[in-house]
Design the sequence.
């Protein structure tokens, strides 16, 4: 019973991440991106938000996949999905760092 509750919570978080990703691909909604959040109000108005929306969309898509695979792993109890989650998590972190550096270099 506890596994089902955990899996449902993981699926709900996954659905929220997929929804956020979909909205960011459409460049709609509040932008959850460090470059945007830490920018001053004047910089936000002049900022080209397109690359930040794309970066956030891809990161939330990968996060959604991570939570979806975790939910499936909880229900099916197959241990190999854990390694897929680790690989996707590593790819997510590397992508976030590399894309942030590229966005900053392109801006200058």
Sequence:
């Amino acid at each position: 019973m506890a596994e089902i509750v955990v899996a449902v919570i993981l699926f709900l978080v996954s659905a929220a991440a997929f929804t956020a990703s979909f909205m960011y691909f459409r460049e709609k909604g509040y932008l959850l991106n460090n470059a945007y959040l830490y920018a001053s109000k004047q910089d936000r108005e002049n900022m080209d938000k397109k690359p930040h929306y794309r970066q956030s969309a891809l990161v939330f898509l990968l996060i959604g996949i991570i939570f979806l695979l975790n939910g499936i792993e909880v229900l099916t109890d197959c241990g190999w999905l854990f390694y897929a989650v680790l690989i996707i998590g590593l790819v997510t972190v590397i992508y976030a760092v590399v894309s942030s550096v590229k966005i900053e270099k392109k801006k200058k």
